[in-house]
Amino acid sequence: MYEIFERFMLAQVALTPDDLQFIRSLSTIKKIRKRQFILREGEVARHKIFVCRGLLRTFSRKDDGTEYTMRFAAENVWTTDHESYYHQIPSKFNIDAIEDTTVVLWTRENFIELVETIPTLRTYVEEVMASSINAIQGRVLGNISYTNEEKYQDFINTYPDVFNRVPLHMVASYLGVSRETLSRIRHAQLKQR
Asked: What pLDDT is recorded for position 32?
């Protein structure tokens, strides 16, 4: 599985064989079963996570059981609860596996060592963080300015490889709409085709 990560990184960043070996030496590969949590609300996020295979979801759950999906992370995507990870505070979110998933993990200490040692990795991480901030801003703008139909279309455009892998109640949770509203939108779009 590490080879998946390595191929991805070589397509993104100029890394030497020694860099790759160092990154590998500080990593851990973990298999997460479907419905298993890799982070629970209240725990401190201790790992930077790269998804090799499978699908993770970041979400929050209210006391009444209502879930609010913040993000999906499929293959070749980095994830963690950034606030908890960087500030070492209890997480407000859960991260669980929607499918059996294999990830590569780095502890915070090991990842800091990597970016301090490998300048090209530091630059890459800064670019990923900037891209993540842009995506978050786009999502906030969409949530306050898009119609439900536009939110649905944006989801399909943002996560084209995820849509068919995610139960509809999770899509509705991500969009902030009821399952009934999501069904109505989907049926209306099917009629237009």
From this structure: 98
pLDDT tens by residue, 101-151: 999 999 999 999 999 999 999 999 999 999 999 999 999 999 999 999 999
Number of other CB atoms surrounding residue 98 within 10 Å: 19
For residues 92 and 83, the answer to whether their CB atoms sit within 8 Å is yes
Statement to judge: residues 18 and 113 lie in one domain: yes
Domain that holds residue 152: 146-193
Q: Which residue has the tokens 């609010």?
A: 68
Helices 168-175, 148-158: axis angle to 10 degrees equals 120
d(C-alpha 64, C-alpha 83), whole Å: 25
Element (H, E) at 101: strand 101-107
Q: Mark whether 168 and 137 lie in a shared domain.
A: no
Identify the DSSP state of 146: S
**170: part of which helix (H) or strand (E)?**
helix 168-175
Report yes or no: 136 and 58 within 8 Å, Cβ to Cβ.
no
Phi, psi of 47 (to 5 degrees): -130, 145
Q: For residue 169, what are its two tokens?
A: 């109640």
- Nearest residue to 178 via CA among 154, 160, 151: 151
How many degrees, rounded to 5, is the angle at CA 125 between CA 119 and CA 70? 170
